[in-house]
From TrEMBL:
InterPro entries: Aldolase_class_II_sugar_metab, Aldolase_II/adducin_N, Aldolase_II/adducin_N_sf. It comes from Desulfonema limicola. Keywords: Lyase, Metal-binding. Residues 8-184 form the Class II aldolase/adducin N-terminal domain. Pfam families: Aldolase_II. One of its GO terms (cellular component) is cytosol. Coiled coil: none annotated. GO terms for biological process: pentose catabolic process. GO terms for molecular function: aldehyde-lyase activity; metal ion binding. The keyword Lyase applies. The keyword Nucleus does not apply. This is Aldolase, Class II. SMART domains: Aldolase_II.
């Protein structure tokens, strides 16, 4: 089976999306790119995460041709592949419909440095202009907006998180959902003071060596 390890990770982290509350039902999608082989494993469309088996995960080439699987890929495969082409540091993309990040997306509010954990994305989380799901226009909107950030809100839709591995992309999605919740709650009370660019620069520098290597 092509990309067996990648497909197993798609199953594992798909179930984690549900258990962590980062999406519901069949919402959202996730993929892993094997740059050496030029192939991407992406979740199939319209199947409950708990029912997806490794062989159901779709393998695509970079031209969106199905290389292995009898299932149809996620309808959002276009922006996954576009992100892989846009940035060579990205090897995994996770799209969520998590409640607070999606709330910010529907308000079309970027998430500023209200908490230092926004550093999982960068200095902020920008908002990509609205475009219909599954379209080239949406892929263009996301790739034009993401720049060097690791997360982007999709206006009136949800969030996309990226990383050099699926574990990292998942961590980005999880931490940015937390920051989105904090931002929503603080905005409900008043006008939260933000962390300065200078202080966020220090946070981002420390993040480079954070954790086990």
């Amino acid at each position: 089976m092509l990309l067996e390890k990648e497909r197993e990770k798609i199953v594992l982290f798909g179930n984690k999306l549900i258990s962590s509350g980062l999406t519901t039902g069949t919402g959202g999608n996730l993929s892993i790119l094997n740059r050496e082989k030029g192939l991407a494993a992406i979740s199939p469309t319209g199947i409950e995460y708990s029912e997806i088996k490794p062989e159901d995960v779709v393998v695509l080439d970079m031209d969106a041709n199905i290389v292995d699987s009898k299932k149809k890929p996620s309808s959002e495969y276009g922006f996954h592949l576009a992100l892989y082409k846009k940035r060579l540091d990205i090897c995994s993309v996770i799209h969520t419909h998590s409640a607070y990040a999606t709330t910010m997306a529907c308000l079309q509010w970027e998430i500023p440095a209200v908490h230092y954990l926004v550093g999982f994305s960068g200095h902020k989380v920008p908002v990509a202009p609205y475009a219909e799901f599954g379209t080239r226009e949406l892929a263009d909107s996301i790739t034009m907006t993401i720049k060097d950030y690791n997360a982007v809100l999709m206006a009136n839709h949800g969030m996309a998180a990226v990383g050099e591995s699926i574990a990292r992309a998942f961590a980005v999605a999880e931490e940015i959902e937390f920051v989105a919740r904090i931002y929503y709650q603080t905005k409900s009370v008043g006008l939260p003071p933000l962390i300065s660019k200078h202080e966020m620069d220090k946070v981002l520098e420390r993040f480079k060596t954070y954790g086990q290597k």
